[in-house]
Design brief:
Layout (H helix, E strand, L loop, with lengths): L14 E8 L2 E8 L3 E7 L7 E3 L10 E7 L2 E6 L2 E5 L7 E3 L9 E8 L2 E7 L2
Antiparallel strand pairs: 1-2, 2-3, 3-4, 5-6, 6-7, 7-8, 9-10
Length: 122
């Protein structure tokens, strides 16, 4: 078996904390202290990634997990649940003011119209 190493030189936002693969697209939840990270997306098998951050609407650049269904990307961030409906290029962030139990989201999963967000105390 052969392995390839991909890192920030390939565009990853930092240390990979979670990964999702849909068809030929790789989605990586990344974070490196103190402020880099985000959702890194590759459409060419990991050769190059584009990193999406708070500038694209993520609640935080500390992304703990990522889950993808079709063109909807769910990002579990340290400051809310960020959801993209356009493949991960822009996000809307949801927090306790939207009914979440905590803003610190550790895992995310979705089935149909139901989204499950694992939280930890802020």
């Amino acid at each position: 078996m052969t392995y390839s190493i991909y890192n920030t030189a390939n565009g990853l936002g930092g240390t990979v904390r979670g990964i999702a693969v849909v068809n030929n697209t790789i989605y990586a939840a990344t974070f490196t202290a103190p402020s880099s990270g985000g959702v890194s997306i590759s459409t060419n098998g990991g050769t190059n990634f584009t990193n999406y951050t708070t500038a694209n609407g993520l609640g935080s650049n500390r992304v703990n997990d990522v889950y993808v269904v079709g063109s909807t990307v769910y990002a579990a961030t340290q400051a809310g649940l960020s959801i993209s409906t356009n493949g991960g290029t822009s996000y809307t962030n949801y927090t306790t003011s939207d009914g979440l139990g905590s803003n610190s989201i550790t895992k995310v999963f979705a089935v149909g119209n139901t989204v499950y967000a694992a939280t930890k105390p802020d």
